[in-house]
Design goal:
The structure is a single chain. By secondary structure, this protein is α/β, with parallel strands linked by helices. The protein folds into 2 domains: about 5-140, Response regulator (Rossmann fold, 3-Layer(aba) Sandwich); about 150-210, Winged helix-like DNA-binding domain superfamily/Winged helix DNA-binding domain (Arc Repressor Mutant, subunit A, Orthogonal Bundle), CATH 1.10.10. About 50% of the residues lie in helices and about 15% in strands. A 6-stranded parallel β-sheet has the order 2-1-3-4-5-6, sandwiched between helices. The longest helix has 15 residues, at about 180-195. The radius of gyration is 17 Å and the shape is globular.
Length: about 220
Amino acid sequence: MTIRLVIADDHAMIRAGLRLVAESADGIEVVGEAADGTEAVAVARRERPDVLLLDLVMPGMNGLKVARTLLADPVAPSVVMLTTFGSDENLHQALRTGVNGFLLKSSPPEHLVEAIRVAAAGDGLIDPAVTMRVITSFAASPVLKPPPELATLTEREHDVLLMMARGLSNREIAERAGVGEATVRTHVAQVLRKLGLRDRVQAVVLAYESGIVRPGTT
């Protein structure tokens, strides 16, 4: 099945580069582009893409407003935010909005393709290079009461949640826990199911907002 993709960024050269990388991968078709937030909403609603690559900082309606607008639609695309180290002041808000992940514009091409495919599958990810910026964005936030569903996690599932929140991939979790990646995928799925979460991104939000993990811990 072909993944339908819309790219929204106010820089034409960046859009061209993203298109080139996306269309060089099997099973991804760019069906639209947008140069500002208002156009991004219009193109996404017209083309109904599976995934929207969305610049966080754009003229007019910024990426955060675009995400909020589109994710409120009955049929919404998966949204992957594009960001830089200098434009992460809205990371926390964007995560709470329900975006499927964050990707640095300087990330390797294979990370872009992976992010598109993961988002199209309904899952989410945060680029490892963005993880510390996400953690920082939660540092000044008030700690909320942990959800009662946390008590349903096994000890291993709780450990997996902690490692997910610190930005570890399934492979890295497997190495630390001394188990196979298939086992980790099962644990991740159980954590998400028990906590009523959509994907790993929401797990990160829950872990930091409820104080399960705090910046500076290991």
